[in-house]
Queue: 4 jobs
Job 1
Amino acid sequence: MHINRVKKALKEGKSAFGCSVLQFRSPDVIRALVAAGLDWAFLDSEHGAYDLETLNDLMRVAVREGFCPIVRVGDLQYPLVARALDSGAQGILLPRVESPDLLATAISWTRYPPMGVRGFGLSAAHLEFESVTMADAIAHFNEHVMVVLQIETKKALERLDELLSVPNVDAVLIGPADLSIALGLPGQFDHPEFVAAVEHIRDECERRGIAPGLHLRSLQMARRWRNQGLRFLSCNSDIGYLLEKATETVGVLTGKID
């Protein structure tokens, strides 16, 4: 059974860097991200078009490579959370969370009894055909599953203390686009009110031993927030990396970039 290295690193106070994956279906995308040195990715089934078969193919490779696959589910529903985990996810990213009670319920779906209510159903994605007892499997996956909370609305910001008080939240991944829109500052990621909101979330997370994080498209902004204590950072996406490098290459070859 595989260890969730990202969860372990965050609990030790270390940083873990990732990106979003929402477009390409080839498992070689995961291998490329591993080769680049990233630690994790969130596979986006909220805004992406992945079905479970594609998620399973990507996650099988990720787990074998020691790379942490986290699935962002489209909604807080038991079948979406449980089936993502059954397909090999090592973590679940919960979007648009505003209710502490619903958050607690959703977290219970990620763990087997007695810690939660997840139905028992493991596959080769978890065990790689290793022979283990049911009790050992339950203990292992309850320990290594990772829960990531997204803060991306004004109401979530207002209820931050309640949300972060729910047990077994491992990390927060701020959704900057939606949060900036909710604050009436769409795309103004340098605005003092947006910056203050991120700093407030960071401080409250650290106070509770939760890893603070942010998903960004800009490397410059990612560097800035890394230097300001955010440890669970996601920068760019599979398609974004391709577009940026291709644009740079064409720019150099055509003389538009020195």
Note: The mean pLDDT is 95.
Job 2
Amino acid sequence: MDAMKPVIILVRPQLGQNIGKAARAMYNFGLTEMRLVAPRDGWPNPDAGPSASGADVVLDNAQVFETLDEAVGDLHHVFATTVRPRDMEKPVVTPEQAAKSIHDNAAKNERSGFMFGPERSGLANDDILLADTVLTVPVNPEFGSLNLAQAVVLAAYEWSKLSDIVGISGIKEKDPAATKAALIGFFEQLEDALDKKRHFHPIQRRSAMVTSLRNMFQSAGFSSQQIQTLRGVIKSLSRPDNSFDK
């Protein structure tokens, strides 16, 4: 496991399905280290697997602790997630701000963790006392109801935006744009083929028609590979009809 990735700590989780959904949310964004503090129904929980939808690596490596003190003992910074205001003198940040802090902490070889409370009641004040910072999601003040997996998604997603996770780094890079020389060669080949087919008629309008065509293809933003493909198409269409019979 990557020691610089944030740990997800579920404090007194109640339902195995919710633990599984939290694992799924974690793995979607490249997080794999889950810690469970006094899970109500014990661990392992057979209800967690189906809800994880394939995020088995998270569940298989989940660590169980009897107390929150033990679960956060090796961490340098802990963020307590809550949607309710608390009368505590602690900094309050958004998930985006927390993610930035976690990356800054990792650059100093300091570990961080997100702490989530039980589904029904959330974190208790005694839990939050162990946190350095309170993480609050700016939700509708008339309906601040996020389930456990949703809260994990928000925290993990904001962290992943600043990270080189597989889902992002694995995207195929766009082919480089065609050079002007490649475009000019394409234009000349196209116009020569159209001349042979007497496309430009009347001839007095040839200049205006060529200008219109060049502007159209220029604005399309073709890549070098796409230009090569188009040139191959023109070459094929320019062959005599019986050229393939030889």
Note: Residues 166-171 have pLDDT under 50 and may be disordered.
Job 3
Amino acid sequence: MSTSEVCYAVAVLSDCGRTRPSNEDAFGVSAERGVYVVCDGMGGAAAGEVASALAVGEVLRVLSGRPETAALEDAVQEAIRTANQTIHSRAQRDPQLHGMGTTLVGLVTEGRRVVVFNVGDSRCYRLRNSALVQISQDHSLVEEQVRSGTITHAEALRSPQRNVITRALGTETDVEPDLFELKAEAGDLFLLCSDGLTCELPDPLIESMLAADLSLNELCARLVDAANRAGGHDNITCLLVRAEI
């Protein structure tokens, strides 16, 4: 199927939440080149905002400017490598930004082909036929403990270490992302989000909300509102991409 027969609708909403003084999340969209990114920054003062903005800017720049002949996975790896180096170098030059970093989750499309990529615990989900599946894999301490069988998923949700991430952009000279290749089907709905959403709302609730017959903008607004009503303890970003084939 040719690229011309596939289009992707998008909507995004980012909110400070109810307890944070500023929004350290960032997002970016290049609908023309099929690039969608969400980042959740961390660091003292405004460092988190700097890291997430740098990551979004670099990933969009590299992936939007990729040659038509470039292998998609190679372009994604190059974008993440460039973003990581940019953030790390900036932190080394400015003592006020030392130690800053950011999570990253994104997807890039070529026709029906979709490549999802992530570093950290910001997530990508896919809703297909009203069933929600998490595509990305959290790089977090509790997720590693769950995978090793040390703790259960229920224990991970209650763990005081549930916000400890094991990979981030910018904190080290190198970082290893995860990449997942998918084939989009008509009606597939992809959710990219920061943990300000997933720490407040369980997956079954997200699934039922996304299955509602509403516009993408309305779905984003409902998700963010629900996360705020559940506590809003962190910044909340929700980016929806729907395949229309």
Note: The CA atoms of residues 100 and 212 lie 38 Å apart.
Job 4
Amino acid sequence: MKRQWIDDGSVEVGLDEAGRGSLWGRLYVGAAILSPEDEAYFDHGVMLRQITDSKKLSGRKRAVLRDYIRENAIETAVSWSEPAEIDKLNILRADMAAMHRALDSIEVPFQRILVDGDTWIPWTSPEEGVVEAIKIVEGDARSLPIAAASILAKEAHDEWVREEVAKDPELHTRYNLGSNMGYGAAAHMAGLETWGAHAYHRRSFAPVRRVLPPSEAPPVRPLFRKPPSY
């Protein structure tokens, strides 16, 4: 996995999201700037070799790596999109908006954005203008900063879901959210059919829309007709 996508001295920030396919709750975005120098890490970069796509890691390992990334990265950031924004914009545009907010919060100057996937809306720095971005399909398995960002996003997403379930245990009783983290597992789908939609369900998603009264279904927001080629 590449620590630096282009070895030209530019500072690169990796971006990835978690919860994009969830039926319930927020979408989270992580951002990470990693040093290319082993000396910048307390273990001289040994644990960097364990960083990979967050979906391939156990929960325990992911939590350990999240702490390692926070402690050793040049800078990290986490942002999110609420269900209401997702329903208003559509999931793709809400994802881009959350990524832009994560970049807005980073204080270290960077010259290149590495984003997982094949779609990007340009981000503009107040000082530098539009910042170069490279779209990397399966980037969380190819780029270390993107993989680190995916871990930050996944941990933030699941932590938030657990906190909401702790505040309202019926979320688990009805939809089994403590286990499926908002994704469309069988118990979650059965809960939707039995109990209908919770306030944090994404009403623009088809499985949720099906259980809504027509008056509560939001208008369908088309995705980009063609992914931007920026």
Note: Residues 196 and 211 are 6 Å apart (CA to CA).
